[in-house]
Amino acid sequence: MKVAFSPIYRYHHLPAGHRFPMEKYDLLPQQLLYEGVLTEKNFFHPKSLSEEQILRTHTAEYWHKLNTGTLSAKEIRNTGFPFHESLVTRGRHIAHGTFECALHALRDGVALNIAGGTHHAYADRGEGFCIFNDIAIASNELLHLGLVNQILVVDLDVHQGNGTAKIFENEPRVFTFSMHCEHNYPLQKEHSDLDIGLKDQTGDEEYLEVLQHTLPALIEKVNPQMIFFQSGVDVIATDKLGRLAMTRDGCKKRDEMVFSLCKAYQIPVAVSMGGGYSHRIADIVAAHANTFKVAQELYF
After folding, report:
1. Strand order, beta sheet including 194-198
2. Which end of the chain is more exposed for a tag (fewer CB within 10 A), N or C?
3. SUPFAM superfamilies recorded for this chain (predicted)?
4. Please, is 290 exposed, middle or buried when counting C-beta atoms within 10 Å of its C-beta (0-12, 13-18, 19+)?
């Protein structure tokens, strides 16, 4: 199983107050190695996006602002981070990592990125800790290269994938599905091809029932040649930004459902980690680690 990770994913340049829970990008690979889920041979270091690749998804004006460090104060606030050029460098590698994961998934069935899932980034701006939209970039690259003709985005982060929905609102070859907490960020939702807004405190049973009722039929309808799975673990009850009430085991069952369906339908799946903001970093890392464990157990 191929997993995208590079030391450049780290947030060491950020002030201490901005680093939590970004430590997960350091701790998750260590945990997976410690538990024997992965070995060093599983990891690959992704390349950086080219300007041409960036401009297939993001606007020239936005890219110029990122490249020259000329975002306005409001634009910087909307990203959630103090601006630093290393955020751009980091984002270029992470987004290319998701694209490379898609290429590996075409061969192996599944591949995962330690980071990514930056679904709040629009073509012309960043939002919500997202600079580049990695799933949108990877999707556009696959379509540009003619490697697939139909893509399904399965976004199960607790927050709606607003940027992804907007980027692909007029692209029939990419079907966007977002199942999220309805009364949560972003306040102003976009229109995915399919949105399911869940009420606050939705727990395992209801969540899994809705997903089981929806996803198999959606796969049949869309008939995708690639699935991008945004596997945010901010759906669990301990998450301070989530507002749902799933257990860690329920979140693992969610992942099992997605991977089992992808495997049964023989659809390659590229996974981005998405959000996770529990008060204890150990809860975040353990929930994310389950995604890798399930993939490893089902595919290898």
Report:
1. 43-44, 2-4, 110-113, 269-272, 226-230, 151-155, 174-181, 194-198
2. C
3. Arginase/deacetylase
4. buried
**Residue in the block written with tokens 């199983």:** 1
Give the CB-side neighbour count of residue 43, counting CA atoms within 13 A: 15
pLDDT tens digits in sequence order for the chain, 300 residues long: 999 999 888 766 555 545 445 789 989 999 999 999 999 999 999 999 999 999 999 999 999 999 999 999 999 999 988 888 988 999 999 999 999 999 999 999 999 999 999 999 999 999 999 999 999 999 999 999 999 999 999 999 999 999 999 999 999 999 999 999 999 999 999 999 999 999 999 999 999 999 999 999 999 999 999 999 999 999 999 999 999 999 999 999 999 999 999 999 999 999 999 999 998 999 999 999 999 999 999 999
> Please, where are the H alpha helices in 45-202?
51-55, 60-68, 73-79, 85-108, 134-145, 162-167
Q: Which helix (H) or strand (E) holds 3?
A: strand 2-4
Domains of the chain: 2-299 (3.40.800.20)
Give the pTM.
0.96
Q: How far is CA 7 from CA 14, 51, 54, 228, in A?
A: 15, 22, 22, 23
Beta bridge partners, 176, equal: 153
Interatomic CA distance for residues 115 and 92, integer angstroms: 12
Q: Which of 97, 125, 124 is nearest to 111 (CA)?
A: 97
Does residue 46 have a cis bond before it (omega within 30 degrees)? no
- Give the gyration radius of the chain's Cα atoms: 17
First to last CA, the chain: 7
Query: Which structure tokens are listed for 9?
Result: 């994913």
